[in-house]
Amino acid sequence: MVVNMKRSVLIFVLMFVVLIVGVGVGYYLNGYTQPYKTPVDTNSEEFFQVSSSTEQERDSVSAELQRSRETAITRTVRRVSSAVVGISVVEIVEYHDPFFRFFEDDPFFRQFFGRQFSYQQPVKGLGSGFIISPDGFIVTNDHVAGNAKEITVTLTNGEKYSAKIVGHDVVSDIALLKIDGKNLPYLQLGNSDDVVIGEWVIAFGNPFGMFEINEKPYVTVGVVSALHMNLQSDDPRRSYRNMIGTDAAINSGNSGGPLVNSLGEVIGVNTIIYTPNQGNIGLGFAIPINRVKSVISQLRKHGKIERASQTGIALQKVDARIAKYFGLPKPMGVIVTDVARNSPAERAGLKVDDVIIEANGERIDSEQDINGIVNELNPGDVLRLKIFRDGRYQTITLKLDSAK
User: Fold this and answer.
1) Is 143 a catalytic residue?
2) Average pLDDT for residues 368-382, to the nearest whole number?
3) Does 172 have pLDDT greater than 90?
4) What is the pTM of this model?
């Protein structure tokens, strides 16, 4: 009994010794493969220091990410933005009191009261523009700055300039401004005849005064949606022909800003949108830059555009009844209802009941179509009309003279 107890105690002691030795050996081996490190005080500056190799790796990764985000669009935005400007204007608008409008229009009361029933008030407006020369010539829309009494131009570096109107043209809706500056950033004008439907375009501008918030242009991207769009304007004096359509968002205040291609070349001037609610729905239109080039060239030289005279004809759209009466295969063109004496039309031989089908190769559907084509011509230019007379087609050449 005593012998068995001693044996059990001896075995227990031996197992305890083996356990202690095993733990010691394991701790030693672990310490050998992973040397002991002195704890770092998290409150010390050393805890926040990053090794130079880690900084280099981080910079390398950041540079790689930046290169991967670089596209033709981002490069164009970076190159173009500095030449886009915000335009603030003050116009003097004359208001008429509707209650006294009858008295103002009446000659008897007007001789005593003159224009006392109307009053003038300054009205502020916002728009966009872009610099086209290092000495400060700026292109914008006529409806942005054409009637302004005060114009302030804001650059992307925050500098503000007082601008003067070099010239403006109501028909084309283009105005040319000038600020006193040197070595200013400016944009290259492209070729709108080379534009293709579906290519990427970028619209820059100052919608809703966004430029005033951070002095940077607002940028939207889309494609060319349509070409050669002839649009009707609320102002009958304006002619929006061969417009470039785009789905790049254009909103109130974008007028006058540049529409550029992926090369950074200006292909149009953002001008109007089609909208039922004063917001963008993807139907924006820009004046082709080739038309703008011709206008600003004349404005820079003469301060105005010399327009050719009207043709001297009154017109009416051809409907199904008129087409049937004159033997046309379908309703087309406009019919001449009157020819003014000593007008270009009379000298060219146009007659009442002639139906004009085309003018300078373009289809004619309304009087606005004829006026739009004439407004783009200069005195002395020729208007070639395809007409339908007495059951057959023929061509008449009409030479335009200067507007009186």
Assistant:
1) yes
2) 85
3) yes
4) 0.73
- Please provide residue 300's backbone torsions phi and psi, each rounded to the nearest 5 degrees: -70, -35
Fold held by 80-178? Thrombin, subunit H (2.40.10)
Q: Nearest 5°: CA angle at 231, between 229 and 232?
A: 170
Q: What's the token pair of residue 82?
A: 């500095």
173 flagged as catalytic: yes
How many angstroms separate the CA atoms of 360 and 373, rounded?
Answer: 8
pLDDT, tens only, 27-68 = 555 554 444 455 555 555 554 455 566 677 766 766 666 667
Give the whole-angstrom CA distance, residue 264 versus residue 242.
Answer: 22
CA-CA distances (angstroms) from residue 306 to 241, 299, 353?
A: 18, 10, 31
Range 313-399 classified under CATH 2.30.42.10: yes
Q: What's the chain's Rg over C-alpha atoms?
A: 38
Beta bridge partners of 165: 177
Fold of 188-302: Thrombin, subunit H (2.40.10)
Alpha carbons 355 and 338: distance in angstroms, whole number: 12
**Annotated catalytic residue 228:** no
Per the CB < 8 A criterion, the answer to whether 189 and 289 are in contact is yes
Which residues, at least 6 apart from 223, have a Cβ–Cβ distance to it below 8 Å? 197, 198, 199, 200, 201, 246, 247, 248
Same fold, 80-178 and 188-302: yes
Task: Provide the 8-state DSSP code for 233.
Answer: -
High-pLDDT (> 90) share of the chain, %: 54
- Per domain, the residue ranges of the chain are 80-178, 188-302, 313-399
Strand locations in 78-117, DSSP E? Answer: 84-96
Contact 315, 337 (CB under 8 A): yes
User: Going by C-beta distance under 8 Å and a sequence separation of 6 or more, which residues neighbour residue 255?
Assistant: 127, 128, 140, 141, 143, 144, 205, 270, 271, 272
Catalytic position from the list 128, 192, 225, 255: 255
343, burial (CB in 10 Å: exposed 0-12, middle 13-18, buried 19+): middle
Dist CA 83 CA 130 (whole Å) = 6
Q: Which of 88, 128, 142, 143 is catalytic?
A: 143
What is residue 210's predicted lDDT score, i.e. its pLDDT?
81
The active-site residue out of 128, 168, 172, 173 is: 173
Chain length of the chain: 404
Chain center to CA of 393: 42
